[in-house]
Amino acid sequence: MSSNSSHQELLDSRPQGLDLGPTGRGGDRLFSGLARGSGVAVIALVVFVAAFLLWLAVPALKDNQASFLFSRIWQPGLTPPKFGIVDLLWTTVLASAFALLLAVPVALGVALFLTHYAPARLARPITYVVDLLAAVPSIIFGLWGITELAPKLAPVGNFLSRHNLGIPFLKPGIPDTGTVFVAGVVLAIMILPIIAAFTREVFAQTPAENREAALALGATKWEMIRLTVLPYGRSGMVSAAMLGLGRALGETIAIMIILSTPSPGAPFSASLFAGGETFASKIANNAAEFDSPSKTGAYIAAGLVLFVLTFAVNALARLVLLHTGRKHS
């Protein structure tokens, strides 16, 4: 009897509006179903895009008479077609990696300054300005890069190419105004707000107990950041960098405006101070050639490689995060 009375008192003491009955469980099931459906829909969309690219690329790849991965020839209009992507792959990876190399240290510095050094009244407006960089259209970056930035970076490029210390990436390239060097700097500015925003949020979530414990043990501010903030935000930093890299790999309009297209038959140059084309700019520049299945299939095959490359970058990021998590667990 006392047990029944206690149970009734517990039910009567529930907060008003809290439903533990079948209706509440039905709501949980509905929410769970919607969440699972959203996840399945995203996976299905990715699979559909991959299948679409593969379906249209395979016939052109079968007819291709050149090495797709190692040839520099790009003549999909021939019968049979001949096309290879080695130049596109190299330019895409080089420009994106150079942009990431420039953007990540600056983004980390901005995130640390805004979260641990700048006073609140100064950090707030700087945060708004940095975030606004992400809202600038790509075409604006491209126009600014080729008209204003490229002439000002030309002396820097000439100096680095003359004092290259034998580094292949810094050797003088074919004289061009729109070089991979300029494109990489513009890409770095474009991905900077993305990396800084994500890293800033991760740094701000560092437990106060960890920071206060480090300071209480006599650590300086930099030692506190090195021992608590950076290890806590390591996974977030890697994720932000990979997100920025994905943005750089797929950038189209700005790169199409900036990069000088090499003339047919021009010698290949692996230098930052040469022109070239990325996957995205190549496809955008030649969209008018999509007038036959073989030509269209060649460009779609190039897009498929970019699709796979982006997936490989994200998979590598997940492996790094998994290794980091095991190492520090």
From TrEMBL:
Q: Region Disordered: which residues?
A: 1-23
Mainly localized where?
membrane
**CDD domains on file:** TM_PBP2 (cd06261)
Keyword Iron in record: no
State the membrane topology.
Answer: Multi-pass membrane protein
The residue ranges of the ABC transmembrane type-1 domain are 89-317
Q: Which GO terms describe its cellular component?
A: plasma membrane
- Please list every transmembrane segment annotated in the UniProt record, as residue ranges: 39-58, 88-114, 126-146, 178-198, 236-259, 298-321
* Alphabetized GO MF terms: phosphate transmembrane transporter activity
Asked whether the keyword Signal is assigned, the reply is no
| Leader peptide range in chain numbering | none
Which compartments is it annotated to reside in?
Answer: Cell membrane
Protein keywords: Cell membrane, Membrane, Phosphate transport, Transmembrane, Transmembrane helix, Transport
Biological process, per Gene Ontology: phosphate ion transport
Function of the molecule: Part of the binding-protein-dependent transport system for phosphate; probably responsible for the translocation of the substrate across the membrane.
Annotated family: Belongs to the binding-protein-dependent transport system permease family. CysTW subfamily.
* The name this protein goes by in its record: Phosphate transport system permease protein
Record organism = Actinopolymorpha cephalotaxi
